[in-house]
Design a protein that fits this description.
The chain has 13 helices and 7 strands. It is an alpha/beta fold. It has 2 domains: 13-176, Ferritin (Up-down Bundle); 181-375, Rossmann fold, CATH 3.40.50.150. It has a 7-stranded mixed sheet.
């Protein structure tokens, strides 16, 4: 906690940043503004990491190192940032009326140099509803995050701010915000219950990737090896998938197996053969247009065919289908799924219980949701 003069407590950095960034929003909806702010935070992160390695390579030039060689950065798992996309360059242009064009060009240049970021970064900075003066002030604001040197410190602070802003944008968007963000307390509960120390972690409706971030954090906090777990994900909303890719990249987490397609996990399963050790998920509640009428005889419905008008019990059986023999799943589900008997849901629930698949249920009354943890025998 930072202190003011006179030892009065000061608001945490992320809250101060949020209030300032929100003031600069003006006439832009939160749903659109999040891509602007989070895009800049991500750009600041990869530029910080690049600059740190760049400085080291400059020192080692006499030994044959080349600070402008992309392979030098690839070897260190650092994104290569072209000269006109580096943070110092953009900050020097922050007061110019064409700053939006400069940032869009920077995002495009970074994608061209880093294949894993292709189609991920936002190019929304030159839009007419984004005031260039406000954008310049926002760049200065983000430029003051993680003032320091070490990449680890930069990633930690910027990652924390990124996550905090995701939560605030979800609140600002209301119900729609839940499509890309699960409250941190709920994610932490699931991760602490499952204890994913080692193995394959899967989220077939991964949103902005919070389940993966906290799984890796759990491992490191318990002195485990992050490389002992691998992550697999799928997301049907492309803009949310982009947030997930940035959220994971800012922490150095391999997101190569986090896939997007607009058909979704039921109709186009991106990981058909995956058997996961852990599934952690917050699927969308009570979805009626999930394509159930096209999958009445699908092999995933081992405990009963889910109703076409509600995907809740389709999600549960999708999770079960993807579990390894000793795998465990923890997920969030609509509270009504505990008692619903509509279109055979009661029979499916009974079959799950009678087959000893339900380990425990945690009721979360404040948000009217239930967290179910189940395991495969």
């Amino acid at each position: 906690m930072a202190k003011k003069n006179g030892n009065a407590p000061e608001e945490p950095l992320e809250k101060q940043l949020w209030k300032t960034a929100d003031k600069l929003r003006k006439n832009i909806d939160a749903a659109e503004y999040k891509h602007i702010v989070l895009g800049l935070i991500f750009l600041k992160y990869i530029s910080d990491a690049f600059e740190e390695l760049f400085a080291r390579l400059k020192v080692e030039e006499a030994q044959g190192a080349d600070p402008e060689d992309k392979d030098e950065y690839k070897a260190e798992n650092v994104f290569f940032v072209p000269q006109d996309a580096r943070w110092n360059y953009l900050q020097s242009k922050a007061r110019q009326p064409e700053i939006g064009k400069f940032v869009d060009e920077a995002m495009d240049a970074i994608e061209k140099e880093n294949a894993s970021l292709k189609g991920v970064l936002p190019k929304v900075f030159a839009r007419q509803n984004l005031d260039p003066t406000s954008l310049g002030e926002l760049i200065d604001l983000v430029g003051n995050i993680a003032l320091g040197d070490a990449k680890a410190r930069s990633a930690d602070v910027l990652g924390h701010v990124f996550e905090y802003f995701l939560g605030e944008f979800a609140l600002a968007e209301g119900k729609k915000g839940g499509q890309f963000y699960t409250p941190r307390s709920v994610v932490e509960l699931l991760v602490e219950m499952l204890e994913p120390y080692k193995g394959r972690v899967f989220d077939p409706c991964c949103g902005s990737g919070g389940m993966f971030v906290h799984s890796e954090k759990f491992v490191t906090e318990h002195q485990g090896k992050v490389n002992d777990i691998s992550i697999y994900g799928q997301e049907s909303n492309q803009t949310t998938w982009r947030l997930a890719k940035m959220n994971l990249a800012i922490r150095g987490i391999d997101s190569s197996q986090v896939k997007w397609n607009n058909e979704g996990s039921f109709l186009n399963d991106a990981h058909k053969d995956l058997k996961a050790d852990f599934i952690i998920a917050n699927p969308p509640f009570n979805v009626s247009d999930w394509g159930g009428d096209l999958m009445r005889t699908d092999g995933r419905w081992q405990y009963g065919t889910p109703p076409t008008g509600n995907a809740n019990f389709a999600w549960i059986q999708h999770f079960l289908y993807h579990l390894a023999p000793a795998g465990q799943a923890g997920f969030v589900l609509a509270k009504g799924s505990l008692t619903s008997k509509t279109s055979g849901e009661g029979d499916i629930r009974k079959a799950l219980v009678e087959n000893s698949l339900i380990d425990c249920i945690v009721n979360l009354p404040a948000k009217h949701i239930s967290t179910l943890t189940q395991y495969s025998p």
